[in-house]
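Researcher: Go.
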Amino acid sequence: MTRIIQGVNAFRDKVFGEKQSLFEQLRDGQRPLAMFITCADSRIDPNLLTQTEPGELFVQRNAGNLIPPFGSPANGEAAGIEYAVHHLAVRDIIVCGHSQCGAMQGVINPASLGSMESVAAWLQFAAPCVERARSRSPEVGGAKLVQAVIEQNVLVQIEHLKSYPLVQDAVASQRLRLHAWVYQFEHGEVLAYDANDDHFVSLPESTRHKLLMPISPPDAP
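Model: Structure:
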């Protein structure tokens, strides 16, 4: 706790003064560039990764960067999505998984969760990703399977995101774009899903056109 308090004091004494005008502007409201949905893992810092300032990202975090599908019991993820799309009118939503994800390792091996019943129940929102990863690469195991599950989980959560009517409407009217990312924190790399090739590729290697193409919403019920 001492380290955290020292950090707060350093922010107040050194950092805040340099950004005081920014915080004064933010007092009048926020206009974030994007919504960033990611894991609660302490090894991820969305603003550090994207080099964004306060007010530029609307961040939502939970174990496994999961999104309960539309119609699930009331939850903070649904509320955050509704607020970001309806009130803040964000133009982009990024769902960002990460390497070495403990939540995905728990999905692969439920027995490892032990008595963590709440964690096990929450991870059911990621259940399809293991079968999908194995169906794409039946021979993959170990660390490669974990990586494949991490990638498939991001795509499963994008599908859940697309189940929200307000997201469907915003995507269809080209007011919103959806992005699936995986952050390789040990290498400082981001992989982005290229819908044209159905594959995750290095963010710098992809063309801007491909990355910004919206992922088509599902057919309306």
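Model: The longest strand covers residues 177-184.
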